[in-house]
Amino acid sequence: MSSVHDEALDETHESDRWRQAGDRIEALLDAASAGGPVARERAEQLVREVVDLYGEALGRVLTIAARTPGLVDELARDELVSSVLLVSGLHPHDVETRVRTALDSVRPYLGSHGGDVELVDVSEDGVVRLRLLGSCHGCPSSAVTLQLAVEGAVQAAAPETAAIEVETDDREATPTPGVFTVDSLMSHVREDAAGNGTWLPAEEFADLAAGEVGGFTVGGLSMLVCRLGDELFAYRDRCPACGNSMAGTTMQRRAGGGLNDAVLRCPSCRAHYDVRRAGAGIEEGHLDPLPVLTRDGVLSVAVPAAVTG
C-alpha cells in the first residue's frame, strides 16, 4: 500500500513541477532582464526558437498518430501533452470540444449534489456560456464548484477563453428556503477563492468507510470529510451556527428521511446539516463545502487561495 501511495505522490509532484514550468520560464526571463534589454530580447528569442522546434516535431507526431484511429484523441486527453499542443497552436480539437471535455471531468462532483452543467454556447469573441441544472443551481456548493472546479477546468482546457458566464435553469423549482442561490453567494466566493484556489492531493480521504466522518487538515485548512455510499463530501470544519469545530460529529439519518438521507449534527449547539445537499442547514445556515475530484488519477480537494495564500 505504501509503495502505491509513494508512487502516487511522486506522480503528483511531477505533475506540479510541469504545471509550474511557465512560472519558472518567466522568472528566468526576468532574471535575464538584469543584463539589459538586449539580454532579455535574446532570451525571449531562445524560448521562441525552442517552442518552434518542438512545435514542428509535435506536428509531425500528430501526422503520424493520425494513421492510428483514436491515437490523436488519446494524446489530446493527456493534460501535459494537451497544454503543449495548445501553446504550439496544434491542438486537434476546437474550443467547444475542449470545453465539453472539461465539463465532463467535473460532472461527477456536480452529480454528487444532484446537479449538472450544460454548455450553452461559445461566442466568436471567446465567451463561454454555461447553465447549471438540477438541484445544484440552488445550493451553496454551486458557487464554490463554479469557481474552483468548473471555471478552472474550462480555463485549463481552453486558455483562449475570454470570459465564462453562468446562468441557472429557470425551469427548475424555486430553491428550498434556507438554501442560498448562486447569485447571492458568487461575490463572496470570488473574494474567498481568489485565484481559483489550489487543488491539493487528498488520497487519505479514500480510506473512509461508508457512513464514516473524518477530520483532516489539507493545505492548512481543517475540514470534515464524509463518505455516503461511494460519494465523498468535504466541508470546512466550522459550525456556522455557533462557530465551533464539528470534531466528533457523526452522520445520522434525518428523522423521516430516506435510506440515503444523512445529516451532520454539531456536537456543541446540536444544529443539523444535510450532507447530500451541500451542507445546507436543517434549521438555518450552511456548512462551507469544498470540491473533491479525481485529477490526473489523484483524489484531490480544492482549498481556497485565501487559505493557502
What would you note in describing this structure?
The chain has helices at 2-19, 21-32, 37-65, 71-77, 79-87, 95-111, 140-157, 182-192, 305-308; strands spanning 115-122, 127-134, 163-168, 198-201, 213-218, 221-228, 231-236, 251-252, 263-265, 272-274, 280-281, 289-290, 292-295, 298-303. With 309 residues, it is of the alpha+beta class. The protein has a 4-stranded antiparallel sheet. It is elongated and about 65 Å long.
Keyphrases for this structure?
309 residues, alpha+beta, GMP Synthetase, Chain A, domain 3, Rieske Iron-sulfur Protein, 3 domains, four-stranded antiparallel sheet, 22% strand, disordered N terminus
Helix and strand topology:
Elements: H1 2-19, H2 21-32, H3 37-65, H4 71-77, H5 79-87, H6 95-111, E1 115-122, E2 127-134, H7 140-157, E3 163-168, H8 182-192, E4 198-201, E5 213-218, E6 221-228, E7 231-236, E8 251-252, E9 263-265, E10 272-274, E11 280-281, E12 289-290, E13 292-295, E14 298-303, H9 305-308
Parallel strand pairs: 2-3
Antiparallel strand pairs: 1-2, 4-14, 5-6, 6-7, 7-12, 8-9, 9-10, 10-11, 13-14
Function: May be involved in the formation or repair of [Fe-S] clusters present in iron-sulfur proteins.
Protein name: NifU family protein
Domain Rieske: 200-301
Instruction: Specify the CATH homologous superfamily of the largest domain.
Output: Rieske [2Fe-2S] iron-sulphur domain
Q: Please give the alpha-carbon distance between the first and last residues.
A: 32 Å
Low-confidence parts lasting 5 or more residues at pLDDT below 50?
A: 1-9, 172-196
Shape: elongated
How much beta, percentage-wise?
Answer: 15-25%
Strand order of the largest sheet: 5-6-7-12
Tally the structural domains: 3
What is the number of strand segments?
A: 14
Average residue-wise pLDDT: 75
Q: Major β-sheet, in short? A: 4 strands, antiparallel
CATH classification class of the largest domain:
Mainly Beta
Which architecture name of the largest domain does CATH use? 3-layer Sandwich
Query: Structural class of the helix and strand makeup?
Result: alpha+beta
CATH topology of the largest domain: Rieske Iron-sulfur Protein
- Order of SSEs: HHHHHHEEHEHEEEEEEEEEEEH
Radius of gyration, taken over Cα atoms and rounded to an integer in Å:
22 Å
Oligomer: single chain
Helix content: 40-55%
